Each structure stands twice: as C-alpha cells, then as structure tokens.
Amino acid sequence: MATASAPGKIILFGEHAVVYGRPALAVPVTQVQAKVTAEKTGQDAGKNWADAVLVQAADIGLSSPLSRLLADSPPHPLATVIEKTLQRLGIDHPAAFQVTIRSSIPVASGLGSGAAVSVATIRALAELFERPLPAEQVNELAYEIEKLHHGTPSGIDNTVITYAKPVYFVRGQPIETFSVAQPFSLVIADTGIAAPTRESVGDLRKLWQADQSRWEAVFEQVGEIVRQARQAIESGETVRLGPLMDANQALLQQMTVSSPELDRLVLAAKTAGADGAKLSGGGRGGNMIALVQPQSAESVASALKAAGAKQTIITTIR
Ligand code: MEV
Predict the structure, then answer these.
(1) Does residue 280 have its Cβ closer than 6 Å to ligand 1?
(2) Ligand 1 pocket, 15 CB below 6 A?
(3) This model's pTM is above 0.90
C-alpha cells in the first residue's frame, strides 16, 4: 500500500500578473491536505485493465472503475491524473489496484485543491509501482494536468504544492524559495462561491489583448509590489505587508477579478483591525486573506464569518 499527501496553498501576492511573467509569492497551507492511498487488490485485471482499477473519492461521492471515468466526456479529472501518471511511469498494463482520494481542501476556492490531488496521486502511484519520481518530474506532470483543466495556468499552484515551501515564482524559471524572517499571521476566509479561474483568466486576457500597454503597466505595478513584499518578508519588516496587500487588491479590482462578496470580506477584515487584505487566487469567488496581529486573529475571523464567510482558517506563515 502507498500513501501520499499534499498541502493546500495560498497566493500572498501577484496572482493573475504571474500569468504574464511577473513574479508571485505563494505558501503552502498545511491545515488542509489532499491524501491519496493506492493499493494493489490482487483481482484479475482481465482484458481491459482499466476495468479493474477502482477510484474512490468519498468527498465527492465517487466510487467507480477507471474505465468508466475515462469514458466520460471530457474524461473525469481524477481519471486523467491516473492515466497520465501511469503513462509517465511507463506502465501500460498494470495489475488491478484501487486509489482512494480524500481531501480537506475546499474545491475551487483558490487553495489549490486540484493541484494537491494531482500531486498526491502522482506520488502515491509512483510509490505503489516502485518507480520514484523526482520532485521536478512530479511538478512537470502536475502542470501538464493543470493545463488540461485551466487553459493557460502559470504553474504556480502545482509548484508551491509539489515543493511544499514558500516560493517566489516566475513562470518558466527554476523554482526559487524565500525565507520568512519574522512569522506573520493570516486569516483565510472563503466566500463559498466557486472561483471561476478559467473564466477570470480568460476575461483578463481579452482586456489585455484590447490594450496591452495599459495592462502591462498594471502587471508591472503588481510585480513591483511582489518584489517589495518579498524583501519585507525576508527582512522581517512585516508591517510593510498590510499596505502592499491593499495596493495589490486595488490592482486586482482594476483587473475585474474581485467581486462584491470578496470586497465585502476585505472591508469587514479591515474594519475589524486587519493590517491589510486582498483576494487570493483566481478571484470572483474563492478565498481572501487578511494580515492580522496574532491577538486579533480570532476577532477578525468572527467579523469575516458575520460578513458572510463560509469558512475561515487562521494560519501562521513561517
Ligand atoms: C490561480 O491560483 C492563480 C492565477 O494567477 C492563475 C495562474 O497563475 O495560473 C489566477
């Protein structure tokens, strides 16, 4: 039997502009995890091996042979991960096995649930078939799968989740981690609305196509915020982060990827004493993050719940 898990993630600064080559900062969120168990069942695999691969994901009420999930149109995302992983491992007719997927990461919330399930599945299968994959290859494969589901993703989600470390991410460049000189606290709050990331990325692309110089200038401002935030985090000047978050949020609003619900949560957090707040991830739903002093984390979380947040997570970035 093989087991693997992968954390959720949040983007601290730089979402969307990261698709256009600007840097972004992201960190793992270990309070939420995807866990995958894979085991050989000893059944006769028969003619079509995919009939003898059972995929179970109780969180979404799924228990089905792989063959059926592959026959869906389009194929079920979990089936695609399993199929692509077996291809990458060079296994074309595996003995019967079962994959069980559990995840406490809310779906479509900006916490990277899809990428985390992919990374944990890839690792569990690599272990089950005793063909270890280096992190770089896990990341590459998870990115390939992200591309099937999200159009033109930057690769930030799969990267931070594969390496489970704070990353300073620039599309297409080797992974760069950053250090946190002074831990800081965040409240993560979920609007409860699925973030339509593919749509918001696509809409922004249309705006960019219509006026590239305007949007390149906006993305450049985001890039500058990200560089300053990294410097502040690495030197322990966390007081500088609140205003940088607010400035990043204002630019995300210009990009049309915030929403009335996100704006309401951002305002509620600030009113309750947060030092800064912004949406995190694709936007128009999903999560927002608020920078708080540890002693006010609980009261900001309560204010966010009162303003409509479906779930809050208090986390310390270190
Ligand atoms: C989604 O988590 C982050 C975006 O920047 C899209 C991407 O980087 O692929 C909105």
Answers:
(1) no
(2) yes
(3) yes
